[in-house]
Amino acid sequence: MDTPSSEGSAPRRTLRRKAIRKNYDENAMDEPIETSKKKFKTKQQLEKETETEALIALSVGFPIDELLEDEIRAGVVRELGGKEQNDYIVVRNHIVARWRSNVRVWLLKDRIRESVSSECEHLISAAYEFLLFNGYINFGVSPLFNGYIPEDGSEGSVIVVGAGLAGLAAARQLLSFGFKVVVLEGRSRPGGRVYTQKMGGKGRFAAVELGGSVITGLHANPLGVLARQLAIPLHKVRDHCPLYNSEGEVVDKAVDSNVEFGFNKLLDKVAEVREMMGGAANKVSLGEVLETLRVLYGVAKDSEERKLFDWHLANLEYANAGCLSNLSAAYWDQDDPYEMGGDHCFLAGGNWRLINALAEGLPILYGKRVDAIKYGDRGVEVVSGSQRFQGDMILCTVPLGVLKKRCITFEPELPRRKQAAIDRLGFGLLNKVAMLFPSVFWGDDLDTFGCLNDSSIDRGEFFLFYAYHTVSGGPALVALVAGEAAQRFECTEPSTLLHRVMKKLRSIYGPKGVVVPDPIQTICTRWGSDPFSYGSYSHVRVGSSGVDYDILAESVNNRLFFAGEATTRQHPATMHGAYLSGLREASRIQRVVNVSRGYPRKPVQRYSGVSNDVLEDLFKRPDIASGQLSFVFNPSTDDPKSLGLVRVCFDSFEDDPTNRLQLYSILSWEQAQKLQEVGESSNESKLTYMVNNLGSKLMGGNAVLDTCGALISVIANARKGRSRTRVVARQ
């Protein structure tokens, strides 16, 4: 599983898969789009392309040869089954694959028409509109999307409660649909249970994840899409995870393998037992069944094997944020078929980079703890202290723990069906000790290592360590505490916890002659007592089932909507699940508005393209001119990170401009200044610096119009009626 907030689900050690791609390669993901024009392809090439696109669509969640229920309800085809449906699926898959090939660029419908027969025009429109308004394409934080977001907010007003991943995703999507949005957040920061903390001082810093940490499964993961849009490197969590006993010795490989094999076999047996028990299986816990089977099959009989077996139990409790005595034997793994494939990754610099990008430009009011939510036929009202906020609809994204505590008063009360589901589902706990050290004493080659505990009751205490030195900027370790140990952790003094974890680290590395220094700084989490979460992430408790996730996701009277990791049956307890739930609810709100109108939504007028004349006109008056390089920027902002365009001219013939080769790229004002600092070097040197050091990608005229049309339009419009203040001419 994953880690949404305070969570941190690591890949289960027993279920690791080999990755297709060893390392994340940004350049391999976003290919130039100028080759998309229609061209002759053989039958074999078309069949291979269609098959590849079907697999990409499958990874996103579309069946190979069927429609989603949402597609059927949307009426994307006139008749189910038959040729039209088959043709629609091919077109749909093509659009999905086309956008996924370059997620930094807003995919226009005209671009699809270039590669799909005009006979399928109605299918292009049906598939494109469905994918766009259901969050399958053109979502995220690419700076090139700004020109496609409407400014009028004519669709209605929505209040979003909570600025976690779900709330941020929904708010951005709703704004792109033309809604007026305000986000109310009780904390002083965005992100919710995704919380990156900067540790250290005096020139030594590290970014450490106190909440959601691992992007679990990169294939088709929307968080991977965001990372690509922001060009943030991802570090694959390496498979090597040595286990140490209490004496600091590495557990014997043969014993480790045998116990792990037995543990997995018992999980298989659990599946067989629950099939035999039928509905009665939901009345017993996973822990009870596992222990009965362990004794029955004689697994982990001696004390050393039992410690190792307990480690696997602790890892299972970590993956589910719950004690095994609470997990449903029948449905604890109901989301397994939907797990994202691919590598499990850390985000370089911390997950705050995604959070900040999602929050940028959103109307978020911090310090607004919600006391009451009122909803009725005339609209909604949110009470926060002495303030009241009114709108047409409300999206509640608070954690399940807050709903369980009934911290928010709903008027009228929530339907009994929904409240019962809230009470049935489990909301567990994972805590951490984050430590910044003077050096990486554990070795550069480890991302994780585990430690056995002597007693079963303590099996989850510091059982697993994450090493963040590869991505955090400093020698940082995070010790995880799961299960019953996480609950005791909440009421234990930090000094006592630090003493215990340091004792464990020194018992491992001391016998090897490695001196374990005192940490520079430590942080102990308390997610269970956090008034804005009251826990870490959800699980299926005894008596509950996956259906309860669906019930939590149900809207009330088409006024009150819900999102968050505990509202997604397929991806609970994950960061990407929270994000996807926000996109889902934005689409649901849009559909409600369409139905209330009694006619299909009129598409918001978005940018549809600029001509080459507009581009040429911009570069007649560049903001910076330096040899063969010229730059244009938006004059309405002084943000050094604001994006602009650079043009590189080759083989300039003044008497015949048509012979001039011109290539373009995107640069920020800050990067342009760095390029000028290269000095009076040759144009070739500057071009090399731009490509190698700044990571710029050059493109031709057609490509820049397609890729950067919105940016060109924004700059051109900003220049109208304004005098340029940033003009630098250099020879």
UniProtKB/TrEMBL annotation:
It holds the Pfam family Amino_oxidase. Residues 1-44 are annotated as: Disordered. Residues 47-148 form the SWIRM domain. Keywords: Chromatin regulator. It comes from the Eukaryota. Gene3D superfamilies: 3.90.660.10, FAD/NAD(P)-binding domain, Winged helix-like DNA-binding domain superfamily/Winged helix DNA-binding domain. InterPro entries: Amino_oxidase (IPR002937), FAD/NAD-bd_sf (IPR036188), Flavin_monoamine_oxidase (IPR050281), Homeodomain-like_sf (IPR009057), SWIRM (IPR007526), WH-like_DNA-bd_sf (IPR036388). Belongs to the flavin monoamine oxidase family. This is SWIRM domain-containing protein. The lineage of its organism: Eukaryota, Viridiplantae, Streptophyta, Embryophyta, Tracheophyta.
